[in-house]
Amino acid sequence: MLKRKMTLFKLLGFTVYVDASWGIILFLVLWSLAKGLFPSYFPDLSIPTYWIMGLTGAMGLFVSIIIHEFSHSLMARKYGLEIKGITLFIFGGVAEMRDEPNSPKTEFFMAIAGPIASLMLSFFFAVLYQVANNLELSVPIIGILGYLSAINMLIAVFNMVPAFPTDGGRILRSLLWWIKGDIGWATQFASRISLVFAIVIIFTGFMNMIGGNPIGGLWWILIGSFLFSAANASYQRLLMKQSFEGKTVRHFMNQTPVTVPSHITLQEFVDNYLYRYHYKMFPVIKDDKILGLITIQTLKSHPHEEWKHLLVDKVTQLQNSDNSIAVNTPINDALNKMIETGVSRLLVVEHKKIIGIITLKDLLEYLALKMELETTL
Question: pTM for the whole thing?
Answer without folding.
Answer: 0.63
